[in-house]
Amino acid sequence: MKRIKLSQFLLIPLILLSNLTLAAQSVDKQIEVESDLKLNIKVLRGEVNIQSWDKQAISVKGTLDELSEGFLFEKQGQSVTIEDQMPRQFRGNDKDGSSLTIIVPRNLTLYAEGVSSSYQLASLAGDIRVNSVSGDIRANDISEQVLFHTVSGDIVSSRLNGKTRLETVSGSIEDEQSDGEISYKSVSGNLEADSMATKVSIEQVSGDGAIRLQQLKSLDVKSISGDIALSIKGLTSMANLDSVSGDISIKLPKTIDARFNLNGGPGGKIHNNFSEDKPKKEKYSPTSFLKFQSGEPKADIKISTISGDIELKRG
């Protein structure tokens, strides 16, 4: 019979203890908060769902990261901190991350951050800011001041209202039914939006954009090495669109009161399918340009490109 050494028996409880330590810890806590709430959330990886209710309290339920070294749920005056405390160094893809549902008052100041954590937000109002490195951000019915920023994650949003900034580096942006003022920034990801915002700013590099807009006061577009297609229902003030090594296509209503100033730049072309006006070229320059007006001009539309095409369409 094979002998079992005493040291092997001693290892068994240590192994069992190790497995229990690595198991995800459950959280179920609630605290009362002040009306002028400032909430800071730090969850480095996992899934965080932030919702609102009509209570002046914060509820946190779910499980912590398997590598968690502790859970901080602390109130200091009007400020509350929620943090799943992690080791200084860990691999982002080993074990599972946190899974938390946080219910808060609708009106608050919120700052949330993470590394590979994804955030989902709904029905919030105030100064709302979320930053994640490789996690996604999904949000609907968020108003007042909004900033969502990711590096390689995607942003999917709907019904944002107020002053909004959506920014990603290599992720994509999908936005619909936003209102107020909105700014889109993307480096190598694509942008798709169907917005009711009246003031819109777009910056994109190496990505393509497809944007549908309603009644605009102002529009500012800068695109490098990416194509952008826009559809606009109306414009009352100014639209500035610039492109380098990318095409600009803009679809306008059949009747619009605007002045047009288009510059094809070196290597660019102008295709006017909106009116009968034809592009012209200066005598000793390869640059094409087109100036004309439609209706009783109240708005100015300026479009320029370098090594790209400009196309006007009538909707």
Write a brief caption for the model.
5% of the residues lie in helices and 64% in strands. The chain has 315 residues and is mainly beta.
Walk me through the structure.
- With 315 residues, the protein is mainly beta.
- Helix content is 5%, strand content 64%.
- It is built from 1 helix and 24 strands.
- It has one helix at residues 6-22, and strands spanning 26-32, 38-42, 45-53, 57-63, 70-76, 79-85, 98-105, 107-114, 116-132, 137-150, 155-168, 173-176, 179-186, 191-195, 199-205, 209-224, 228-244, 248-252, 258-265, 269-273, 280-281, 288-294, 299-306, 309-314.
- It has a 6-stranded parallel beta barrel.
- A hairpin with a 2-residue loop joins strand 5 (70-76) and strand 6.
- It is elongated and about 75 Å long.
- 35% of the residues are buried.
- Mean pLDDT is 91; it is low at 9-22.
Search tags:
elongated, single chain, 315 residues, 64% strand, mainly beta, six-stranded parallel beta barrel, 24 strands
Average pLDDT for all residues:
91
Helix/strand/pairing class, anyone? mainly beta
- Helix % is under 10%
The SSE order reads: HEEEEEEEEEEEEEEEEEEEEEEEE
E-strand count: 24
Q: How is the quaternary structure best described?
A: single chain
Strand order of the largest sheet: 11-12-14-16-15-13
Q: Largest beta sheet, briefly? A: 6 strands, parallel, barrel
Q: What's the end-to-end separation, in Å?
A: 88 Å
Low-confidence stretches: 9-22
Strand content: over 45%
Number of helices: 1
